[in-house]
Automatic annotation (TrEMBL):
Known catalytic reactions: XMP + diphosphate = xanthine + 5-phospho-alpha-D-ribose 1-diphosphate
One matching Pfam family: Pribosyltran
Entry keywords, A to Z: Cytoplasm, Glycosyltransferase, Purine salvage, Transferase
An MF annotation (GO) of this entry: xanthine phosphoribosyltransferase activity
GO terms, biological process: purine ribonucleoside salvage; xanthine metabolic process; XMP salvage
Cellular compartments annotated: Cytoplasm
Domain of life: Bacteria
Enzyme class, first EC level, given as a word: transferase
Function description: Converts the preformed base xanthine, a product of nucleic acid breakdown, to xanthosine 5'-monophosphate (XMP), so it can be reused for RNA or DNA synthesis.
Species lineage: Bacteria, Bacillati, Bacillota, Bacilli, Bacillales
Assembly and oligomerization: Homodimer.
Name listed for the protein in its UniProt record: Xanthine phosphoribosyltransferase
Domain (Phosphoribosyltransferase): residue spans on this chain: 48-157
């Protein structure tokens, strides 16, 4: 998706060889028009799959996911980070290791909002090791729901996330694929940016 690729190249800040900061349009300040367009693109890809719910994880997945959900005219559901002492009756739950924070969070979704009638489209901002997307897929499985696809805004293709999702037979679509962050520079897949 050209508009997103342009933003990543122009506004992305390389923190180190594995982390890209996108606070200018996605993770702090949000480009609403771009999120709207992202909804259109994922709808063109998954619109015939009978999606009943868009599932993401708080917090940074919510901005794109809500626009995707709006386009599909279905609810946007986000997995919440559970408080340590919360009793999790009435919830599906799983543990997700955070790549950027290097900690593990228990995340929950109420049984009220996900069931075996649902066809779920998982949306997230980044794909690194696939932990967040696989965790969301596990929540869908606990509910007996079907995961029809995974929509990612920025895939870091030098990390193993895509391979892990494909191993789990999940259909992954990424709008921007980053080949490398080496040399303090964003290089997209199939593009040396020279
Ligand atoms: P994964 O779960 O695939 O290992 O990592 C994806 C999750 O970690 C996303 O939900 C995203 O919030 C965060 N993340 C991973 N890599 C990056 C990165 O390079 N930049 C930012 N801003 N977030 C990242």
């Amino acid at each position: 998706m050209d508009a997103l690729k342009r933003k990543v190249i122009e506004d992305g800040v390389v923190i180190d060889e594995s982390i890209l900061k996108v606070d200018g349009f996605l993770n702090h300040q949000i480009d609403a028009g771009l999120m709207y367009e992202i909804g259109e693109v994922f709808h063109s890809q998954f619109g015939d799959q009978g999606v009943t719910k868009v599932l993401t994880i708080e917090a940074s997945g919510i901005a794109p996911a809500i626009m995707v959900a709006h386009r599909f005219n279905v609810p946007c559901l986000f997995a919440k980070k559970a408080k340590p002492n919360t009793l999790n009756e009435g919830h599906y739950q799983t543990d997700v290791h955070s790549f950027t924070k290097n900690n593990t969070n228990r995340v929950i979704v109420s049984t009220e909002f996900l069931s075996d009638q649902d066809k779920v489209l998982i949306i997230d901002d980044f794909l690194a090791n696939g932990e967040a997307a696989l965790g969301l897929h596990r929540l869908a499985q606990q509910a007996g729901a079907e995961t029809v696809g995974i929509g990612i805004l920025v895939e870091k293709s030098f990390q193993p996330g895509r391979a892990r999702l494909e191993e789990a037979s999940l259909n992954v679509s990424s709008l921007c694929q980053v080949a490398s962050l080496k040399g303090n520079k964003v290089t997209l897949l199939g593009d040396d940016n020279d």
